[in-house]
Amino acid sequence: EEGKRVKLGGSGAMKAVLVSDEVKVPDNVTVKLHARQITVTGPRGELSRDLRHAMIDMKLVEDEEGKRVKLDMWHTKSKTKASMNSVCSAIRNLIIGVTKGFRYKMRFVYAHFPINVSVSDDKKTVEVRNFLGEKRIRVVKMLEGVTCYRSSDVKDELVLEGNDIQAVSQSAALVHQCALVKRKDIRKFLDGIYVSEKGNIEALD
Questions:
Q1: What is the SS3 assignment for 96?
Q2: What is the pLDDT of residues 82-112, one digit of tens each?
Q3: Is beta strand 146-150 parallel, antiparallel or unpaired with respect to 157-162?
Q4: Residues ≥6 apart with Cβ < 8 Å to 15
Q5: CA count, 13 A, side-chain hemisphere, 197
Q6: I need a surface site. Which of 35, 126, 141, 145 has the fewest CB within 10 A?
Q7: Which 3 state secondary structure label does DSSP give 174?
Q8: Which residues pair with 2 in a beta bridge?
């Protein structure tokens, strides 16, 4: 809900006195708040995020409607108000992470030289060989909490899984960046490893 707006003299900018939003918390998830540092615990584990950069009041509310995190932002301009949605999305992603998890699928694209990708036994390291026929072996280590494996039913597919969406997406970006075409027209040379699908480990309700 958006509160009253007051006009500042001379500047023409409008400020909202109070902007509020809330994030619902499922019954099987526990949320702890301390000085804008949030810890979320669920069936798949525990995740934490430091949100002290956002000037937002956060509190945990529990009543007959259920558990929820209430967020209030006072005397804010329209541009800074956008950070409210960012914080809400971050909290929702933490809740989804500890209940459903995140899964990114990547496909190998090549025209002539087949990209050869192998995964270590602990599912923490990816080795990329024969990219554009190069002899150099590209090694990418997954971030903490992320595992990867080759898809058994789809050819040339790599799957990354984890609870933290930031760690999963950053690991996918590191794999993508290790196989970039240099000094050629990338509209013609499309070889690389690209994210083909983003989803959850367990199906969303």
A1: helix
A2: 899 999 999 999 999 999 999 999 999 999 9
A3: antiparallel
A4: 5, 6, 8, 75, 76, 77
A5: 13
A6: 35
A7: helix
A8: 19
